[in-house]
Amino acid sequence: MDEKKAVGRKPTKSKSTKKAESSAPKKNVQGDVIFALDIGTRTVVGVLARKTPQGCKILDMETVVHEKRSMADGQIEDIKAVSGDIKKVKRALEARNRIQLRDVCVAAAGRALRTMRAAWEYKLPENKIITAEALKATELDAVRRTCYSFSKDNDTATFYCVGHNVISLSLDGFKVNKPEGHRGEKLVTEIIAAFLPAYVVESLCAAVYGANLEVANITLEPIAAMNAVIPQELRLINIALCDIGAGTSDVAVSRDGSVVAYGMATTAGDEITETIMRELLVDFNTAEMLKTSDDKEIAFKDILLRENKVTRERIDQIIAPAAHELARVIAEEIITANAVPPQAIFLVGGGSKLKNLAPLVAEELKVDSTRVITGRRELLRGIIAPDEMPLDAEHSTPLGIAVSAGEGVSYDFTTITVNGKKLHTLDTNRLTVFELMGFAKIKPEDMIAGSGKPLSFTLSGEKITLRGGHAKPSEVIVNGDPASMNTVVTKGDVVTIVPAENGADAAAHLSDYFDLNTIRAFTVVLFGNKQRAGKYILINGREVTADRRIWEGDEIALVQTESISELLGYLGIKEKVLLNGMPPAPEDMLKSGDIITYENPPVVEPVMVEEKVPELVTVPPAPVQSATAEPSGPMITVNGIETEFPARGDGKPPIFLDVAAAFSDDPTELLAHAETITVNGKIARLDEEIHDGDVIIIE
Question: Cα dihedral sign for 152, 156, 162, 164?
Answer without folding.
Answer: negative
